Amino acid sequence: MYENAFNAIEKALRAEEGISNELDYVEQTSWVLFLKYLHDLEGERRDRAELEGKTYAPIIDGRYRWDRWAAPKKNGVFDHDTAMTGDDLVRFVDGELFPHLALFHDRATGPDTIEYKIGEVFTELRSKFRSGYILRDVLEIVDGLAFKTQADKHELSALYETRIRRMGNAGRNGGEYYTPRPLIRAMIAVVDPQIGETIYDGAVGSAGFLCEAYDYLRRPDLSASDYETLQRRTFYGQEKKSLAYVIGIMNMVLHGIEAPNIVHTNSLNENVLDIQEKDRHDIVLANPPFGGGERREVQQNFPIKSGETAYLFLQHFIRKLRAGGRAAVVIKNTFLSNTDNASVALRRELLDTCNLHTVLDCPQGTFQGAGVKTVVLFFEKGAPTERIWFYQLDPGRSLGKTNALNDDDMAEFVEMQRTFATGAKAWVVERTAVDASTCDLSVKNPNAPEAETLRAPEEIIEAILARDAETAEILERIRGLL
Fold first, then answer.
1. Is the CB of residue 255 less than 8 Å from the CB of residue 214?
2. Does residue 367 or residue 225 have the better pLDDT?
3. Most buried by CB count within 10 Å: which residue of 192, 204, 219, 270?
4. What's the whole-model pTM score?
């Protein structure tokens, strides 16, 4: 049912002039889903309050309630007579609904409240529906979706993840919102978070790391207190971009986290020297954006100045970790060998202040649409690095859109990492073997078969000329026989 509903939504959106690509599909589906989710959540809270003999004050009330403007019903049946459609619906959404919900930001008591999420979402997003008839179709389809049971949310989250993955493959920087889930699951398995620890992603994107960590920690036999801890005191994130923020919120909601602790802000605006113990976390899981180029005033927030956004994020993550905290961070593989001052200084800081125990070398094509190779750095804060275990991931095939990374590809890495076992694709580098002046950590597999020595250009030219002479001689003999 849900698959058919999502397909029907996409079919309707393809006919909408204001919506042109996969990013728009996800964006516009997200705000409609979010409002339907809030309506169902309010219904649950109202029923709970009645059972406890309490009164319930709705978050969204009056003509802005879902069952007043989006899906009015009469005797349980959709009431087409009172439902707005056409230009009336578009005018209400653009001119009244969005401005009203944006004001929730002012009344929110903190970023961990639903009011804050509502205010942020509807301050940053705009409805791109130009046809009220198409919007009416989408609203009626979404009204048929239920968010009441964990099974409902699980199926919806799987479908939503599929759309995020497609968006990540669609170009126009879509890939920045999607990290392959098999890679995320392997990173989480190595870091092994426990209930009671806090998990942070300062470049949260579609919240893939936080959602997968929630799935890793959630068990059927959780106590009520542990469940409350998972819901409210475990997952923290920050996101700069509006669309990514909305997608991240919706993704976490669909995974079962009612009020995600995601703040809409640029993590790099925080001076890392001002980070206090109360701001730190036990675990960092992240895939920060590459390239970029933050403003000069942003770079002043970091002791190691750099125009590479990922380098600033790495400094941010190191300082966001508590002593003994664990991290897994994706970064361009050139970080390991670049000779510029910032790269060398950052590698030295990482080696001196953290135990960089594992480097996972990912093959080309791990990230769809990305032209760079990446590595994953696994480190613990508080003790210097003594030895580094390298693993060169080789799935034995070329990765691409139709042949993506899967969990089986990651299984050997996760298993070998537990004991830092060595082999054809894994080796150990002692800190004493790392050049003290450059801190070069280039991936150089000592177990790889030696490549044949390339011949010198002069030798190749001589061989070609000799072969040409031999060919000419053979042709002359043939001519003599004719």
1. yes
2. 225
3. 204
4. 0.84
